[in-house]
Design brief:
about 120 residues, 3-stranded antiparallel sheet, 7-stranded antiparallel sheet, mainly beta
Protein backbone atom coordinates (compact mmCIF):
# COMPACT_ATOMS: atom_id res chain seq x y z
CA UNK A 1 0.00 0.00 0.00
CA UNK A 2 1.50 3.29 -1.13
CA UNK A 3 0.42 6.58 0.43
CA UNK A 4 -0.42 9.14 -2.28
CA UNK A 5 -1.72 12.29 -0.58
CA UNK A 6 -4.61 13.63 1.47
CA UNK A 7 -7.81 13.59 -0.59
CA UNK A 8 -8.12 17.40 -0.43
CA UNK A 9 -4.71 17.65 -2.11
CA UNK A 10 -6.02 15.94 -5.29
CA UNK A 11 -8.93 18.10 -6.50
CA UNK A 12 -11.62 16.85 -8.88
CA UNK A 13 -10.31 16.76 -12.47
CA UNK A 14 -6.66 16.46 -11.41
CA UNK A 15 -4.10 13.67 -11.48
CA UNK A 16 -0.81 12.85 -9.84
CA UNK A 17 2.05 10.53 -10.81
CA UNK A 18 3.61 8.37 -8.11
CA UNK A 19 6.70 6.21 -8.16
CA UNK A 20 5.83 2.80 -6.81
CA UNK A 21 9.34 1.49 -6.26
CA UNK A 22 11.66 -0.61 -8.36
CA UNK A 23 9.23 -3.52 -8.75
CA UNK A 24 6.38 -1.50 -10.25
CA UNK A 25 6.13 1.07 -13.03
CA UNK A 26 4.97 4.60 -12.16
CA UNK A 27 1.26 4.89 -11.40
CA UNK A 28 -1.13 7.71 -12.33
CA UNK A 29 -3.87 8.52 -9.82
CA UNK A 30 -6.95 10.44 -11.02
CA UNK A 31 -9.84 12.16 -9.26
CA UNK A 32 -12.84 12.35 -11.55
CA UNK A 33 -16.61 11.91 -11.36
CA UNK A 34 -16.40 11.84 -7.56
CA UNK A 35 -14.06 8.86 -7.38
CA UNK A 36 -10.36 8.04 -7.41
CA UNK A 37 -8.74 5.72 -9.97
CA UNK A 38 -5.20 4.43 -10.44
CA UNK A 39 -3.66 3.00 -13.61
CA UNK A 40 -0.15 2.46 -14.94
CA UNK A 41 1.15 5.88 -15.90
CA UNK A 42 2.70 4.82 -19.20
CA UNK A 43 0.54 4.60 -22.34
CA UNK A 44 0.58 1.07 -23.80
CA UNK A 45 1.08 2.53 -27.30
CA UNK A 46 4.15 4.66 -26.65
CA UNK A 47 5.98 6.00 -23.63
CA UNK A 48 3.80 8.95 -22.72
CA UNK A 49 2.75 9.81 -19.20
CA UNK A 50 -1.01 9.37 -18.85
CA UNK A 51 -1.02 11.62 -15.79
CA UNK A 52 -0.21 14.41 -18.27
CA UNK A 53 -3.25 13.46 -20.37
CA UNK A 54 -6.70 14.99 -20.54
CA UNK A 55 -9.51 13.72 -18.33
CA UNK A 56 -13.05 13.38 -19.61
CA UNK A 57 -15.32 11.57 -17.19
CA UNK A 58 -13.83 8.14 -16.51
CA UNK A 59 -11.48 8.35 -19.50
CA UNK A 60 -8.00 9.75 -19.97
CA UNK A 61 -6.60 10.73 -23.33
CA UNK A 62 -2.91 10.12 -23.94
CA UNK A 63 -1.16 13.44 -24.60
CA UNK A 64 1.00 11.97 -27.36
CA UNK A 65 -1.34 10.25 -29.86
CA UNK A 66 -4.81 10.67 -28.32
CA UNK A 67 -5.35 7.04 -27.34
CA UNK A 68 -8.24 6.94 -24.87
CA UNK A 69 -8.23 4.66 -21.80
CA UNK A 70 -11.11 3.75 -19.49
CA UNK A 71 -9.90 4.43 -15.94
CA UNK A 72 -12.23 1.74 -14.54
CA UNK A 73 -10.84 -1.14 -16.60
CA UNK A 74 -7.61 0.12 -18.17
CA UNK A 75 -8.95 -0.85 -21.60
CA UNK A 76 -8.18 1.35 -24.58
CA UNK A 77 -11.30 2.59 -26.31
CA UNK A 78 -9.68 3.72 -29.56
CA UNK A 79 -6.55 3.42 -31.62
CA UNK A 80 -3.63 3.73 -31.67
CA UNK A 81 -3.50 1.88 -28.31
CA UNK A 82 -4.48 -1.78 -28.52
CA UNK A 83 -3.31 -3.11 -25.15
CA UNK A 84 -4.82 -2.22 -21.77
CA UNK A 85 -2.91 -0.62 -18.93
CA UNK A 86 -3.04 -2.15 -15.46
CA UNK A 87 -5.48 -0.80 -12.93
CA UNK A 88 -4.67 -0.56 -9.23
CA UNK A 89 -6.94 -0.56 -6.21
CA UNK A 90 -7.42 2.77 -4.43
CA UNK A 91 -8.56 3.25 -0.85
CA UNK A 92 -9.09 6.18 1.47
CA UNK A 93 -8.33 5.74 5.15
CA UNK A 94 -8.83 8.68 7.51
CA UNK A 95 -8.71 11.13 4.59
CA UNK A 96 -5.48 9.69 3.21
CA UNK A 97 -5.45 8.24 -0.32
CA UNK A 98 -3.59 4.94 -0.85
CA UNK A 99 -2.80 2.89 -3.95
CA UNK A 100 -2.42 -0.88 -3.80
CA UNK A 101 -0.19 -1.80 -6.76
CA UNK A 102 -1.53 -4.70 -8.78
CA UNK A 103 0.71 -7.72 -8.53
CA UNK A 104 -0.98 -9.72 -11.23
CA UNK A 105 -1.76 -8.55 -14.74
CA UNK A 106 -5.21 -9.57 -15.85
CA UNK A 107 -5.97 -7.64 -19.05
CA UNK A 108 -9.44 -6.22 -19.08
CA UNK A 109 -10.18 -7.06 -15.46
CA UNK A 110 -10.54 -4.15 -13.02
CA UNK A 111 -8.89 -4.44 -9.64
CA UNK A 112 -11.39 -4.03 -6.84
CA UNK A 113 -10.74 -1.76 -3.90
CA UNK A 114 -9.68 -3.11 -0.53
CA UNK A 115 -12.37 -3.36 2.16
CA UNK A 116 -11.42 -0.13 3.93
CA UNK A 117 -13.22 3.02 2.87
CA UNK A 118 -13.34 1.95 -0.80
CA UNK A 119 -13.47 4.75 -3.36
CA UNK A 120 -12.84 3.22 -6.79
Amino acid sequence: MIPVCRIEDLPEGESVRIEAGDATAPIAVFHTDGAFYAIDDTCSHQDASLSDGWLEGCYVECPLHAALFDLRSGEPTCLPARKPVRTHAVTVVDGMLYVHPATQIVPGQPVHAAPEEAVA
